[in-house]
Amino acid sequence: MAMPAQPVPSHPPSLVAMHELHSVRYVASTAAIPLDAPIYVAGHRGLVGSALTRKLQAEGFQNILTPSRHELDLTNAQEVEHFFATRQPKYVFLAAAKVGGILANHHCPADFARDNLLIATHVIHASWKYGVRKLLFLGSSCIYPKFAEQPIREEALMTGALEPTNSAYAVAKIAGIELCKAYRRQHGFASISLMPTNLYGPGDNFHPEHSHVIPGLLRRFHEAKVARKPSVCTWGSGQPRREFLHVDDLADACLFAMRRYDSPEPLNIGCGEDLTIAELVETIRDVVGFKGNIAWDPSKPDGTPRKVLDVSRLQSLGWKPRIKLRAGLEATYDWYCAQAGTTDNREATKSETVGK
Ligand code: GDP
């Protein structure tokens, strides 16, 4: 029989609140992280890791460790041990993962399972062994059962079958959560797991076919605007509902949780609000300034009808997102234009598209 969850506070002198929610006991603590503490951001080049690094820099942290993949291969146990033994990080944000879209997951499930299992195993073990004060592990909303009740509560974890196309990836992520719980229970190691909802923002993958909906459509609308096409094709029926969070808000939530959350139970990170894909598409068209029509391709999959996280646990701790979807889309579009090296950014093209 599973043991009841017993939170092991990593910062015992500073407990400020204890809540009883959804029958899960969890602890909120406040703990200052010294600005000169060595902080390791694993996966600092990815969407989440790069946002975390920006956030930590903006907060004044001076000792952020971001070894390149060439210097440190997280699937190699010896290299990970050596890194932790020599660099002695005190806080770890584990945002490194092998990620990919539906096709990549479908074709290479062994790679996704193996790499993500090795990364979680090596980093969590070395963190405990070399005296890390606290580790934050990032999961994903795809770890929840395919038919979980909406909004999805943390308790839904491991209560049903997974979406088959990404089950290998999801099982590896679930193993990471269980590792955190196990090291906490056996060794008193302060490790927490966060489950972010659908993310977007600078650093995202803007591939036309293999990206998620926001970067894919920002690009498609942009290219249609530049080429003065009459319409843009979008996928499915437009009826599915999704929740989106800007990655800078996630980074803020991560730092908040690193300071304030200390429990074996995972913590959903989202805004708790969803919208239809059709509403999203209209907003993206407007942000880009495309004046043509929107066409829907019903032969493309809709995916799950609704995906929204229950964020009451997060809200009860006192965190909420700051970036509204519209403003986040505008900032992401500006970043995309700048990064793609086009001068045809949102501001520059306003006059061109008005009155077309
Ligand atoms: P999901 O949340 O795992 O389903 O991931 P996606 O971000 O890929 O898709 C979300 C929804 O947006 C689905 O209903 C898609 O059919 C719809 N969608 C509409 N146009 C596009 C597009 O151009 N790219 C993607 N990826 N999804 C689109």
The molecules bound to the chains, other than polymers, are: guanosine-5'-diphosphate
> Please, how many helices?
11
CATH superfamily of the domain at 12-200 and 245-269, called what?
Answer: NAD(P)-binding Rossmann-like Domain
Given helix and strand content, the structural type is: alpha/beta
According to DSSP, the number of beta strands is 16
Which parts are unreliable, with pLDDT below 50 for 5 consecutive residues or more?
1-28, 343-356
Rg value: 21 Å
* CATH top level class name of the domain at 12-200 and 245-269: Alpha Beta
CATH architecture classification of the domain at 12-200 and 245-269? 3-Layer(aba) Sandwich
Quick gist of this model?
The protein is α/β, with parallel strands linked by helices and 356 residues long. The protein has helices spanning 47-58, 77-87, 102-107, 109-129, 167-187, 213-226, 247-260, 277-288, 312-317, 325-339, 346-353; strands at residues 15-21, 24-29, 39-42, 64-65, 91-94, 134-138, 191-196, 198-200, 231-235, 241-242, 244-246, 261-262, 267-269, 275-276, 293-297, 306-307.
3D structure, described in words:
This protein has a domain at 12-200 and 245-269: 3-Layer(aba) Sandwich (Rossmann fold), CATH 3.40.50. The chain has helices spanning 47-58, 77-87, 102-107, 109-129, 167-187, 213-226, 247-260, 277-288, 312-317, 325-339, 346-353; strands spanning 15-21, 24-29, 39-42, 64-65, 91-94, 134-138, 191-196, 198-200, 231-235, 241-242, 244-246, 261-262, 267-269, 275-276, 293-297, 306-307. A hairpin with a 2-residue loop joins β1 (15-21) and β2. A 6-stranded parallel sheet has the order 4-3-5-6-7-13, with helices on both faces. The chain has a 3-stranded antiparallel sheet with strand order 1-2-12. It contains 11 helices and 16 strands. α8 (277-288) crosses α10 (325-339). The chain is α/β, with parallel strands linked by helices. Bound molecules: guanosine-5'-diphosphate (GDP). Guanosine-5'-diphosphate binds next to α6 and β9.
